[in-house]
């Protein structure tokens, strides 16, 4: 998901917003101001309708944020850190740093989202009822009632047992508990996600053909997104299955070539890419040899030529605090989401005791491991996806 901007940090978690939220925000404001409120309660000023529409849109986005924060808080309580959180047109995605350890944890983390939305729905419903009794102007009551409805709808949609929705995770947790096999549970939940996605696509196009109304396109689009996301989750599950029991230490490239932070970009480029520096990413080390960051060809590329003689790698690198890191004895399957999320597409492996650099993990390290594991288990085929990736 590209085209996102950072909104800020809540409880230490980066909250990003996809541009599609702006579209939803606008749609909610306009449809309430021009449509629902004006039609149901005519006679108020245009400013009233638009002000209310805008306020409802703000509270709506805040409701989605509350849903995602609930996931994040419960995940953290179950010992899983949250990478970041992105709001987009269908709600939000809280990206976890690792997988739930037990079906129970999965159930709690996934279930709390829809639960939060239901509670918000009930709360807004009660508030609307109370405001109605107080004889508050109709459009205000209508706006609060709309918030109640949309939160219930959000809970219902997210509870559909299809990956990547919360309901898909609940299904996975149940199947995991029932079969004792998290991999098979994930594969089934992904299949359910694909199936539901196709239903939406077919329904969307069919309704467009029958009614001639283009709103079906929206449904089809959501279906298409679900198919893609469920397929990706299924592949991730297969990957985790292949990598089960393998540690970061086993797949990392140990003792990678490093560059001193004080090296200028020009000095570095004089030595790269044919000699000592033949990779596309290098850990950067301080004077005492401790890792301070990661520099990539892309970061060098962004440094304007005239400044390369005076700019050091320490200035252009991705600082260690922002780089993806792992400890050597972590399961490598836990590190995959971090590797996917990392802008530099590398994970630095640090000694948990002293912070010393032990190795680096890139996609090619993972792919090499998968290829060999598949070959060793006799499951490698020429059409194997693991080999092509
Ligand atoms: Zn959710």
From TrEMBL:
Species assigned in the record: Streptomyces ficellus
Subcellular location: Cell membrane
TM spans (from-to): 12-29, 49-67, 107-131, 143-165, 186-209, 215-232
Protein name stated in the entry: Zinc metalloprotease
CDD domains in the cross-refs: S2P-M50_SpoIVFB_CBS (cd06164)
Membrane topology category: Multi-pass membrane protein
Keywords for this protein: CBS domain, Cell membrane, Hydrolase, Membrane, Metal-binding, Metalloprotease, Protease, Repeat, Transmembrane, Transmembrane helix, Zinc
UniProt domain CBS: residue ranges: 252-310, 317-381
Family recorded in the similarity comment: Belongs to the peptidase M50B family.
């Amino acid at each position: 998901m590209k085209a996102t901007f950072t909104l800020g940090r809540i409880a230490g978690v980066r909250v990003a917003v996809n541009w599609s939220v702006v579209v939803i925000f606008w749609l909610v404001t306009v449809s309430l101001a021009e449509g629902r409120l004006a039609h149901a309660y005519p006679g108020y000023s245009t400013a009233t309708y638009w002000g209310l529409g805008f306020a409802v849109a703000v509270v709506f986005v805040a409701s989605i944020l509350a849903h995602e924060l609930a996931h994040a808080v419960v995940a953290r309580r179950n010992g899983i850190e949250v990478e970041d959180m992105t709001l987009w047109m269908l709600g939000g995605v809280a990206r976890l740093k690792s997988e739930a350890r037990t079906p129970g944890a999965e159930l709690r983390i996934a279930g709390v989202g829809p639960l939060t939305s239901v509670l918000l729905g009930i709360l807004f419903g009660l508030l609307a009822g109370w405001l109605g009794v107080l004889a508050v102007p109709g459009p205000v009551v209508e706006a609060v009632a709309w918030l109640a409805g949309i939160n219930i709808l959000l809970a219902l949609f997210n509870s559909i047992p299809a990956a990547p929705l919360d309901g898909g995770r609940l299904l996975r947790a149940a199947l995991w508990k029932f079969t004792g096999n998290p991999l098979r549970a994930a594969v089934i939940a992904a299949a359910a996600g694909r199936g539901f996605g196709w239903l939406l696509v077919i329904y969307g196009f069919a309704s467009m053909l029958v009614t001639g109304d283009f709103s079906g396109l929206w449904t089809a689009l959501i279906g298409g997104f679900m198919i893609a996301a469920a397929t990706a989750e299924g592949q991730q599950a297969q990957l985790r299955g292949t990598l089960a029991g393998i540690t970061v230490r086993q797949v990392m490239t140990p003792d990678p070539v490093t560059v001193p932070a004080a090296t200028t970009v020009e000095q570095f480029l004089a030595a790269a890419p044919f000699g000592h520096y033949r990779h596309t990413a290098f850990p950067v080390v301080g004077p005492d040899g401790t890792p301070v960051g990661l520099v990539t060809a892309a970061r060098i590329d962004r440094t304007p030529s005239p400044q390369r003689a005076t700019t050091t790698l320490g200035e252009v690198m991705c600082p260690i605090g922002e780089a993806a890191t792992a400890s050597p004895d972590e399961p490598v399957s836990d590190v995959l989401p971090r590797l996917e999320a990392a802008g530099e597409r590398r994970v630095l492996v640090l000694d948990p005791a002293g912070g010393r650099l032990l190795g680096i993990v890139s996609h090619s390290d993972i792919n090499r491991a998968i290829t060999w594991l598949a070959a060793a288990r006799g499951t490698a085929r020429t059409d194997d996806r693991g080999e092509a990736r």
